[in-house]
Design brief:
Elements (H helix, E strand, L loop, with lengths): L6 H7 L5 E5 L17 H5 L1 H9 L3 E5 L16 H11 L3 E3 L6 H8 L6 E3 L7 H4 L3 H12 L4 E4 L10 H5 L6 E3 L1 H14 L6 E5 L8 H7 L5 E4 L4 H7 L14 H10 L4 E2 L3 E5 L8 E5 L8 E5 L1 H13 L2 E5 L12 H12 L3 E5 L1 H9 L9 E2 L4 H8 L4 H7 L1
Parallel strand pairs: 1-2, 1-5, 2-4, 3-4, 5-6, 7-8, 7-13, 8-9, 13-14, 14-15
Antiparallel strand pairs: 10-11, 10-12
The structure holds 3-phosphoglyceric acid and magnesium ion.
């Protein structure tokens, strides 16, 4: 990041009594039944920035998205539960506005005392936030910018989005990078700079189409690329194997085949998988070789021999980046692959980075010690796009 001002620069100017608009990524997973927050990692990650502003006596106005509502209010994506949790973690109530830039937001911001925190309702309840139309985004950014005398971007998970709160508000206010954004970029730049070798990347998750660009970008850089998760089946298919009813992106088979051809043997795929008769926690399942996946079964995890093979490679690595679970870790029957790979990463004598909402949530859901990883990123798409070498709209906006 060239010439980006930091939160410390803003604090040095003095923020007591000033309104500081903070874009955070409080897009946390919620339990589908109860609506409870199932992983508060992203809320905790923004506490250093918010705490510093509170301590300095700023009037802190926090905004965020949650989920993907379609530009209108949708109660299942309300940030209200997040305001509650944020207040608990800060040790002081967070004033919640029931709209983003309407009457509730205006009065909530106006009533803030020095050192108090407000959270606005979900940015994506407004079509202007994600609009592709510059004028529509700009009009929304004007309304948001009216709530701050300065702007802090601490939403690393959203810096790859060309959205009003990320890309257009900083053009309207004095702007700085928050502690989380600075730390994330510092860590990830070590991976794109001159990583200590062997540099091993582990990719999983369901959608191969999301990962093609990063695979393409990483191939020349990495020493080994280990692929598991739902995305591995499109690669296995490209090798001519039958994958039963496993996740498959048919229109990506050719591209995966070409990546395998060009990878110079760097890509390592599973040799065995756990194949189940249904996508269900209690489904009948067995470990099978990848050339013997029954036609009526789907692979929901990598198998033990694959875990052992991946672990052997990881044990030699000096730098590791991991994005995406190896299987459906939310179901105990299909969690062993993700757990095995995560444990292998913690044992390696390496600089280790976990990228992504899902993999970070997996680390915590499996009860692994977060401190045994070098860095756990709050950004999924954002960290991948950073590693791809793309210009990120949220970072570029801070540089201007
Ligand atoms: C994420 O969860 O990846 C970030 O919060 C960004 O969300 P989005 O992919 O819906 O833009
Ligand atoms: Mg995402």
């Amino acid at each position: 990041m060239s010439a980006v001002r930091s939160l410390d620069d803003l604090l040095a100017e003095g923020v007591s009594g000033r309104r500081v608009l903070v874009r955070a990524d409080l897009n946390v997973p919620l339990d589908k039944q109860t609506g409870d927050i199932t992983d508060d990692g992203r809320i905790r990650a923004v506490l250093p920035t918010l705490g510093a502003l509170v301590e300095a006596g700023a009037k802190v106005v926090v905004c965020s998205h949650l989920g993907r509502p379609k530009g209108v209010p949708d109660p299942q994506f309300s940030l209200r539960p997040v305001a509650g949790r944020l207040g608990e973690l800060l040790g002081a109530p967070v004033h919640f506005a029931t709209d983003t830039v309407g009457d509730s937001a205006r009065s909530t911001v106006a009533d803030l005392a020095d050192g108090q925190v407000a959270l606005l309702e979900n940015l994506r309840f407004n079509a202007g936030e994600t609009s592709k139309d510059d004028a529509e985004r700009g009009a929304f950014a004007d309304q948001l910018a009216a709530f701050g005398d300065a702007y802090v971007d601490d939403a690393f998970g959203a810096v790859h989005r060309r959205h009003a709160s990320v890309h257009d508000v900083p053009a309207r206010l004095p702007h700085v990078a928050g502690r989380l954004v600075l730390r994330e970029v510092e860590v990830l730049s070590k991976l794109t700079g001159d990583p200590e070798r062997p540099y091993v990347v582990v990719l999983g998750g369901s959608k191969v189409s999301d990962k093609l660009a990063v695979i393409e970008a990483l191939l020349p850089t990495v020493d080994r690329l280990l692929i598991g998760g739902g995305m591995c089946f499109t690669f296995l298919k490209a090798q001519g194997l039958e994958v039963g009813t496993s996740l498959l992106e048919k229109d990506m088979v050719e591209t995966c085949g070409s990546l395998l051809e060009r990878s110079g043997g760097k890509i390592m795929l599973p040799v065995d998988v756990v194949a189940a008769d249904a996508f269900a926690p209690d489904a009948t399942h067995d470990t099978v070789r990848v050339d013997g996946i029954p036609s009526h079964r789907l692979g929901l995890d990598i198998g033990p021999e694959t875990v052992a093979g991946f672990a052997a490679v990881l044990s030699q690595a000096r730098t590791i980046f991991w994005n995406g679970p190896m299987g459906v870790f939310e179901m105990p029957a299909f969690a062993a692959g993700t757990r095995g790979v995560a444990e292998a990463i913690t044992k390696a004598d390496a600089f280790t980075v976990v990228g992504g909402g899902d993999s970070a949530a997996a680390v915590r859901a499996l009860g692994l010690d977060e401190s045994s990883f070098g860095h756990i990123s709050t950004g999924g798409g954002a960290s991948l796009e950073y590693l791809e070498g793309k210009s990120l709209p949220g970072i570029a906006a801070l540089e201007n």
